[in-house]
Amino acid sequence: MLQARQPILRRFWYPVIPLDQLNGGPRAFTLLNTPLVLWLTGDGKPVAMRDRCCHRSARLSGGWIEDGHIVCPYHGWTYGADGVLVRIPQIAESGRNETIRVPSYRAAARYGYVWVALDDPLTDIPDLPEAEAAGYRLIQEFYEPWRCSALRLMENSFDGAHLSYVHKSSFGDIKNPKPADFTVEEFDGGFHLRSESQVRNPELGKKTTGSAEDVTTRRRHQTWFMPFCRKFKITYPNGLEQIIFTAATPIDDESIQVCQFVVRNDTEAEVRAADVIAYDRQITGEDRVVLEGTDGDAPLDIARGGEFHMPSDKPGLLMRQHLSRLLAAHGESEVRRRTEAA
Fold it and tell me: Which H or E run includes 291?
């Protein structure tokens, strides 16, 4: 599936930029091949608009914010949060002109990110009650582009068979490649996966798990939110909970923006956020090396062949089934490179 060629994927919310990165003015981002300018109004609300001025197509992201409006850097044309032109400085009597507007999109602030939906969203932003609950803290981790498809990252996040190999330098055990048994419970728009296993607990892991043992037990509850978000709750024997939220925000057909933060039921005095980030940095780095070498055009229709599968691939295959049904329900066919070539 070529992720930027499927119109239905425009009808979901995606985190696109940390909210605090807009404090210095407008910023650019590309979502599903759509160039966006993101900025904050005078009361701090996020705005997402197409990154093109209606006058001579200059990028609005190169401009600035003035009195709660965005100003084009080319000729100073000024737009409101709804995209409507409000001022042409070269014309004294100019004012709000409803006939001249830049396309604007839905934008919302949640979990420290600006979320954007390009078209009428089919679902809400994923609900993470722990992120706003007493006794938990939120640690922002990674905001970076990866050269892989969103589906590849999501499948990897639920793939128990890769842990022993990809993460052999961190918590995996290559001598014990059999993945843990798991159960899956589907719901409309995703599924829950539960499993439990013992993993190596290296020195950096000991700092973040609060356990001095060389081996520890992870009880996992993972949730996939269609199309490209996952919640990964790990509970350790000492009661520590670490909830990792990862979004694979699609930039174009070949790349994503990885947005990841962690919620934990401990304090900075107990475990430094820097250590949590460092350990997760090692693990995500191991994933990235492999995933950036995969083919981003992952087939939803496995009957067409091209890839082989094993029992532990079930979560990823469920994702492909859910996405196939989504396309069919909205009258779309899967777009792939060879179908384009044909």
Answer: helix 273-291
pLDDT value, residue 210: 78
Q: Nearest 5°: phi and psi at 296?
A: -70, -20
Spatial neighbors of 71 by CB under 8 A, at least 6 apart, are 63, 64, 65, 77, 78
Tens of pLDDT, residue by residue over 147-167, are 999 999 999 999 999 989 999
CA–CA dist 240, 135 (Å, integer): 12
Amino acid at 175: K
Contact 337, 330 (CB under 8 A): no
Cβ atoms of 49 and 102 closer than 8 Å: yes
Does residue 216 surpass a pLDDT of 90?
no
Which pair of tokens denotes residue 44?
Answer: 């701090």
pLDDT in tens, 265-277: 999 999 999 999 9
Are 63 and 48 in contact by the 8 Å Cβ rule? The answer is: no
Sheet holding 14-18, edge to edge: 14-18, 113-117, 104-110, 46-50, 34-40, 27-31
**How far is it, in rounded angstroms, from Cα 46 to Cα 26?**
10
Kindly give the interhelix angle for 150-157 and 314-329, rounded to the nearest 10 degrees.
140
Locate the DSSP E strands across 57-209: 64-66, 69-71, 78-79, 84-87, 97-101, 104-110, 113-117, 137-146, 182-187, 190-200
Contact yes or no for 30/264 (Cβ under 8 A)? no
Whether residue 117 has pLDDT greater than 90: yes
Look at the pTM and tell me if it is higher than 0.90: yes
Distance CA 248, CA 229 (A): 6
